[in-house]
Fold this protein.
Amino acid sequence: MAAAAAMAAALREWAAAAARQDAAWRAAMAAWAPLLVSLAGLAAQMRAAQRLAWGGSPLGPFGDLRARLWRKQRGAAEALLEQLGGRRAELRAVRDAVGAGVAAVLRLYEERAAELGLAAALRRGPRCPSLADALEGLQDVERYYRQLYLESKLLLLRIRCDSLADMEALPQSWERILARYKEDVVQDTLLKISLFVDNQRELCCSPGS
C-alpha cells in the first residue's frame, strides 16, 4: 500500500506541474499563428517589390530605393523570426520540464515495482485506469511535446528570405502540422491521473486498508 500511495503522490504532483506547463505551452503556441501570418504578408510584399519594373516606374530615378526597401523588409522578417525563436524557447522549456518530470515518476516506479507487483500495476477499476495506463499517458504527453517541438523547430529552420514562396505558405504549413496533433493527449492524461489518484485515496480511506 505504501508503494501505491507513493506512486499516487508522485502522479498528483506531476499532474499539477503539467497543468501549469500546458498553460504555458498553449500561450506560446497561440503566439505562433499571428507571427507566421505577419511573415507571410511580408513575404508577399517582398515578392511584389521584386516583380516591380523599377526602371520603368516613377521610382526609377531613386536608384537605391529598391535596395533600401529590401533591407528594411529583411530586417522586419528577421525581427519576426527572433520573436518566433523566443516562443520556440518557451516550447523547449516546457518540453524539458515535462520530460524531466516523466523521468522522475518512471524512476520511482522502477524503484517500487517489486513492492507494487505486476498485478497491482495492471489492475483497473470500473471507472479507474490502472497505474500502467497512467504511466503510459505520461509517456504519451512527453512524446507529444517532444514531437511538436521538433516540428516547430524544423519549420523555423526552413524559413529563408530567398525562398519567399515558402514564407508565404507558412500559415498553411503550420496548420498542417497542428492538424496532426489534434488529439488532446495532455488533458486525457490529466484525467486518467485524476481518476487513478482519487481511486487510491478511496482505497486508503476504506475500512480495513
User: Anything to note?
Assistant: DSSP finds seven helices and no strands in the chain.
